[in-house]
Structure formats: structure tokens, C-alpha cells
Amino acid sequence: MALLETHGLTAFYGDFQALFGVDITLNESETVAVIGANGAGKSTLLRSISGLIRNVPGHIRFDGGEIGALAAPDVLQLGITMVPEGRRLFPSLSVEENLLIGKYGRVGNGAWSLDTIYDLFPVLKEHRHRPGTALSGGQQQMVAIGRALISNPRVLLCDEVSLGLAPVVVRDIYAAFPKIRATGASIVIIEQDIGQALKVADRVYCMMEGRVTLTGAPTTLSREDIHAAYFGAH
Ligand code: ATP
């Protein structure tokens, strides 16, 4: 049985339909990448799963139960934690305080504590007493990931972690995903920048205009297929 799955997921902003029956599946200890151009509906998919958009038509099932009607705090309690686009650190709090904020949502049993997060991203330990927003963009992204991990989520939903970062920094951040997965967490990575996402994902979904246009293991998908599914070009 899948750990998390959407079936026929549909979402609207007022009259505007952003998702048209999206089916995705995430298995235990799996990393799935959802790729697609700006506006494809990737963030809407994550917002629907995490309860930020509620009562969407279609099904969202987690661990066998229907969660589509749950509010965001209840989804968090179940162990589904989002790393939001744009990091959203608290400017008046230190790096360490920003990390500890993640504990308030839920504390599941698991691998993650301040110490293991500092092992994952040693640079954060060096800067732990500095204001979170004084760090570089890449380091702030590490804080946002650490803040999500400290709740020991079963599912980590990551929205465009590479946005605005230099390729070398993106590589450092992506190096963390296999280590996170090794602790037993399942991961959904939303990306416009597909290079790194395809390297760490077990399976990939490509979205265009609110629909899934391609699914498969990265090794089974050709560049041409991905290009066509991403841009709609043939
Ligand atoms: P991005 O990379 O820009 O985040 P995305 O694939 O995540 O793109 P979404 O943000 O999910 O796409 O947006 C899907 C569609 O819904 C787009 O056409 C977008 O303009 C529209 N949309 C997103 N948020 C809202 C909103 N709050 N109100 C109205 N329309 C919205």
C-alpha cells in the first residue's frame, strides 16, 4: 500500500482550475520528484496535500486514511511536513531558534535532533547563534529543511529548494536527500530545475497545465520524453 496518494485531485482558485485530476503515489522510504514549468500546478499539489488548500475534490490518502478535509495543523500532526518555497525563516530568531520552531508542530520519534541536523549541515552549527536571515540563501534553505526535519516527519514535502541558488549550492543541498531518505522518511521534491531532482528521485512525475503528463523512474525516461511532457513540445 502506498504511504501517500492522491487520486483525481482537483483544485480551484476562485473560478480558475489549477489541477485537473492529479494521481500521484509515494511509497514508504521513497523519493519522488514532481517537475514542471512555472505555473504547472506543482505548488498547488503540495498545498492541497498539506491542508493549506482544503476540501479539494478528489482523494488524498495517507497511511490508508482519507486526509483531504484536514486542516494544515492536523496534517502536520500526522507527520507530513512542508519545506515552503521561499524558506520563510523568522528574521528575529537565531539559526538554532529557527530550527527549534519546527518542534512545535509535532515531535515524532525518529532520527532527527539538533545534533543530527548539525551533522547533516555542519555549516549551520558554525552559525547557530546568528540571525537566520543573516545567512546566505543556500544556508537559509538548509535551515528550512532542518526546521522541517526536527519534527521527525514521515513525509517531507519540499517546494523548489533550488530556487535562486547557485548550482554548487544546489548540489550541496541535494546531497542531503539520500541521507534523509536513509533515515526512513519519504520525500516529495517539487522542482523547475530538473537536473538535480532527477539524480535523487526514485520516480518522477512531470506536470503541465494542472495535469500529470509523464511518470516513471528517471532511468527509464528519455530526454525527449521529459522535454515533451514539460513543455508540451513534440
Ligand atoms: P511555480 O513554479 O510558479 O510555483 P507551480 O507549478 O508550482 O509553479 P502553481 O503555483 O501551483 O504552479 O500554480 C498553478 C496555477 O495556479 C498557475 O496558473 C497560477 O497562476 C495559479 N495560481 C497559483 N496560486 C494562485 C492563487 N493564490 N490565486 C489564483 N491563481 C493562483
Automatic annotation (TrEMBL):
Lineage: superkingdom: Bacteria
Pfam families, alphabetized: ABC_tran (PF00005)
Positions of the ABC transporter domain: 4-234
A GO biological process held by the record: L-amino acid transport
Keywords, ordered alphabetically: Amino-acid transport, ATP-binding, Nucleotide-binding, Transport
InterPro entries reported for this sequence: AAA+_ATPase (IPR003593), ABC_transporter-like_ATP-bd (IPR003439), ABC_transporter-like_CS (IPR017871), BCAA_Transport_ATP-bd_LivF (IPR052156), P-loop_NTPase (IPR027417)
Gene Ontology molecular-function annotations: ATP binding; ATP hydrolysis activity; branched-chain amino acid transmembrane transporter activity
Family indicated by similarity: Belongs to the ABC transporter superfamily.
PANTHER family to which the protein is assigned, alphabetical: HIGH-AFFINITY BRANCHED-CHAIN AMINO ACID TRANSPORT ATP-BINDING PROTEIN LIVF (PTHR43820:SF4)
Name of the protein described by the UniProt record: ABC transporter ATP-binding protein
Organism name: Rhizobium fabae
